[in-house]
Design a protein that fits this description.
33% of the residues lie in helices and 13% in strands. The chain is an alpha/beta fold. It has a single domain, classed as Oxidized Rhodanese, domain 1 (3-Layer(aba) Sandwich). Helix 1 links the parallel strand 1 and strand 2. The longest helix has 12 residues.
């Protein structure tokens, strides 16, 4: 899982008031989409620590930032997918979260 939200959204210290819970999906790596577009291919691969072709599911708050991230990841050879419900959906469930 790749969380492309800002660090304060990821750690739960600041989030959208429409979300009942704040934090991130357990085990997700955080690279803000703003940082992702500025990183070199090698920097992205190093942060993800995954082999080319590995599956990566990206999410953000509502699915739009993660859609952009998916295009970058696919260009690097990852099997990238977008979680369109993203944090907006996850925060409304009783699924686990980390802060």
């Amino acid at each position: 899982m790749l969380d492309v939200r800002r660090p304060e959204e990821y750690d739960g210290s600041f989030g959208s008031p429409c979300d009942p819970r704040q934090g991130h999906i357990p085990g997700a790596v955080n690279i803000g989409v703003e940082d992702l577009v500025l990183m070199t291919d090698d920097e992205i691969r190093g942060r993800l620590g995954l082999a080319e072709g590995a599956e990566v599911v990206a999410y953000c708050h509502s699915g739009s930032r993660s859609a952009a991230a998916v295009q970058i990841l696919r260009g690097l050879g990852y099997d990238a997918r977008n979680y369109p419900g993203s944090w907006h959906e996850w925060s409304r469930t009783d699924l686990p979260l980390e802060t």
